[in-house]
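Thread amino acids onto this structure.
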C-alpha cells in the first residue's frame, strides 16, 4: 500500500511540473501574438482609411458632377426662359407690326366703323332725349288741358247759375275776385243764414271735395269740449308740443291735431263733425245738394289733420265757420226768392251744436291768428276782423285750396267760403280771393270790439318779433299730403309781466347783443383833436427811427 501511495504522489508531482512548464511556455509566446495582432489591426485601419479617402474622393467627384449637372440645368432653364421671352417679344413685335400693317390697310374701314358706332350712339341719345321731351310735353299738355277743363267747367257752371234772389252786386264782386281760378265761392250772412251769392253752384252745392286742413276746426272743437285741449292755455293733456291751440290753428300744425285726434278717436270725431253740419245737407234751397262724406271707421291720424276720407262742399264750410263763431248755432242757409224775403228775411237755425259756447268759440283766437299772422295773412285787411282757416291738399287729380271764414269776428256779418282747384292752387290763394271780397264789402263792416281775444279769451297780444319770424313757418298746410307728426317740447319765453310767449322751434332765437359802453349820437364829438401826418413827415420819422434804433 505504501508503494502505491508513493507512486501516486510521484505521478501527481510529475503532472504538476508539466503544468507549470506548459504555463511558462505559453507566457513566453503570448506577447508575440499581441504584437502581431497590433500590426494586423494597424494594417487594417490603414486599409480602411485609404478606402474611406478613396470613397470620399469618389463622393466629392460625384457631388461636383451633380453640381455641374444642376448648374447646367439652371443655365438651360435661364437660356430657355430668355429664349421664351425673346420669342414672346418677337411675337408681340410681329403682332404690332401686323396690326400696323392691318391698320394701314384697313384704316378707312375701321374709321368708318367707328364713325358708324358713334353716330348710332348719338342717334340713340337724341332719340331718348326727344322721347323724354315728348313725354314731358305731353304731361304738360295734359296738365294744361286739365287746367283748361277745370276753368272751362267753372265758366260754364257760373253761366248756368240760378241767380234769382241773389245780391247781384255781391255776386259781381265774388266773380271778379275768383277771376281766372277754377273754383266756387259762397257769401252768406253769418248770423242769419241769408245767402247773398253762390258762385259756381254746381261745385259749391252739388259737389264735395276733401276738406284738407279745414277739418282741424272740427278736431279743435272736439278736443276743447272733451278736455283733451286745455281751454286756458291751449296745451294738449300730458303731451308736449311745439305750439299751443291758437298758433296750431294759425299755422295749420298737422302734428298738433294728429295728437289730439289719437286721444279723441274716430267715433267722437264723427260725432262732432255731424254736430258742425258735415256729412249731411245744409238745407239750402237749391236742387241736388250733396251731403258730403264722413270718415267713418278710419282710424288713421291723418283724418284729424288732413281730412282724409272726409268730403265737404263750399256751402258746408260757410255754415260750419258761422256755427263756430255763433257759439254753436247752425243756421239754415237760404237764398231769398222774392222781394218780401229780401226785405224781411227770417232767420232759421237748423240745429244747435249742443256744446257750451265758450268751448266752441275757443277756436276764434286761432282763426283770427290765421288771418293776422298765419296762413291766411297775405293780402288780408287786418282792420276788418277776419277769422278763418285755410286748407291745402291734393284731391281728385289736382291741388285744392280752401278757406272758411267770417268777419268781423266780434259780431260776424259775413261768412265767406272759397274752394279752388288746380295745380297751382293752395289755401293761401283761396284766402286771397276772400280777402278781395272782404275789402270790397269793407263799407258794410262795422267793428265793435277790436280786442276780442283779450276781452273774451284773456289772450295777450302775440309777440311781434316772434310772429314775424314764425311767419316763415306758416306753410305747414302746404305739406298736407305728407306726415308732419313729430315729437317736440314746448319752447317758452317768460316776459317781464309773467306771461309766456311761444317760441316756434324752427324760428331763430333772438340773442341779446352786448350793450355798448360808448354810444355814438348825432351830437357826438371826438375826445381828442385829429392828428394829420403828411407823407414827408412819415418818411422823416422812419429815417430817424432807422438812424437811432434804440
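Threaded sequence (550 positions):
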Amino acid at each position: 500500500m505504501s508503494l502505491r501511495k508513493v507512486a501516486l504522489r510521484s505521478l501527481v508531482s510529475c503532472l504538476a511540473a508539466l503544468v507549470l512548464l506548459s504555463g511558462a511556455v505559453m507566457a513566453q509566446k503570448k506577447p508575440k501574438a499581441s504584437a502581431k495582432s497590433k500590426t494586423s489591426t494597424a494594417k487594417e485601419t490603414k486599409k480602411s482609411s485609404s478606402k474611406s479617402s478613396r470613397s470620399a474622393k469618389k463622393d466629392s467627384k460625384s457631388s461636383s458632377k451633380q453640381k455641374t449637372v444642376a448648374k447646367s440645368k439652371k443655365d438651360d432653364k435661364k437660356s430657355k426662359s430668355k429664349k421664351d421671352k425673346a420669342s414672346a417679344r418677337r411675337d408681340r413685335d410681329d403682332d404690332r407690326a401686323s396690326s400696323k400693317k392691318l391698320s394701314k390697310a384697313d384704316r378707312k374701314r375701321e374709321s368708318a366703323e367707328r364713325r358708324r358706332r358713334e353716330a348710332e350712339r348719338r342717334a340713340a341719345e337724341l332719340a331718348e332725349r326727344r322721347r323724354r321731351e315728348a313725354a314731358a310735353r305731353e304731361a304738360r299738355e295734359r296738365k294744361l288741358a286739365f287746367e283748361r277743363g277745370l276753368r272751362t267747367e267753372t265758366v260754364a257752371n257760373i253761366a248756368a247759375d240760378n241767380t234769382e234772389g241773389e245780391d247781384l252786386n255781391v255776386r259781381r264782386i265774388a266773380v271778379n275776385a275768383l277771376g281766372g281760378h277754377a273754383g266756387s265761392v259762397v257769401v252768406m250772412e253769418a248770423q242769419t243764414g241769408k245767402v247773398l251769392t253762390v258762385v259756381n253752384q254746381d261745385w259749391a252745392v252739388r259737389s264735395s271735395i276733401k276738406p284738407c286742413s279745414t277739418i282741424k276746426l272740427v278736431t279743435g272743437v272736439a278736443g276743447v269740449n272733451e278736455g283733451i285741449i286745455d281751454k286756458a292755455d291751449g296745451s294738449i293733456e300730458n303731451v308736449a308740443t311745439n305750439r299751443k291751440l291758437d298758433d296750431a290753428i294759425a299755422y295749420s300744425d298737422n302734428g298738433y291735431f294728429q295728437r289730439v285726434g289719437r286721444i279723441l278717436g274716430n267715433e267722437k270725431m264723427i260725432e262732432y263733425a255731424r254736430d258742425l253740419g258735415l256729412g249731411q245737407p245744409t238745407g239750402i234751397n237749391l236742387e241736388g245738394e250733396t251731403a258730403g262724406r264722413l270718415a267713418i271707421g278710419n282710424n288713421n291720424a291723418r283724418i284729424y289733420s288732413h281730412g282724409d276720407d272726409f268730403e265737404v262742399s263750399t256751402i258746408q264750410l260757410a255754415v260750419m265757420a258761422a256755427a263756430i263763431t255763433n257759439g254753436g248755432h247752425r243756421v239754415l242757409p237760404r237764398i231769398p226768392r222774392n222781394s218780401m224775403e229780401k226785405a224781411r228775411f227770417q232767420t232759421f237755425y237748423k240745429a244747435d251744436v249742443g256744446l257750451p259756447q265758450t268751448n266752441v268759440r275757443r277756436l276764434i283766437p286761432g282763426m283770427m291768428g290765421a288771418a293776422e299772422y298765419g296762413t291766411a295773412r297775405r293780402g288780408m285787411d287786418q282792420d276788418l276782423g277776419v277769422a278763418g282757416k285755410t286748407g291745402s291738399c291734393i284731391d281728385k287729380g289736382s291741388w285744392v285750396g280752401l278757406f272758411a271764414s267770417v268777419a268781423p269776428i266780434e259780431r260776424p256779418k259775413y261768412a265767406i267760403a272759397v274752394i279752388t282747384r288746380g295745380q297751382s292752387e293752395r289755401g293761401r290763394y283761396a284766402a286771397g280771393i276772400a280777402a278781395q271780397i272782404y275789402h270790397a264789402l269793407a263799407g258794410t263792416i262795422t267793428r265793435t270790439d277790436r280786442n276780442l281775444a283779450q276781452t273774451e279769451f284773456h289772450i295777450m297780444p302775440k309777440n311781434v318779433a316772434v310772429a314775424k319770424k314764425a311767419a316763415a313757418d306758416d306753410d305747414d298746410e302746404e305739406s298736407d299730403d305728407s306726415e308732419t307728426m313729430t315729437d317736440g317740447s314746448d319752447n317758452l319765453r317768460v316776459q317781464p309781466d309773467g306771461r309766456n310767449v311761444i317760441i316756434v322751434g324752427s324760428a331763430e332765437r333772438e340773442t341779446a347783443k352786448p350793450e355798448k359802453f360808448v354810444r355814438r349820437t348825432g351830437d357826438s364829438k371826438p375826445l381828442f383833436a385829429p392828428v394829420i401826418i403828411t407823407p414827408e413827415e412819415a418818411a422823416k420819422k422812419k429815417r430817424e427811427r432807422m438812424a437811432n434804433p434804440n
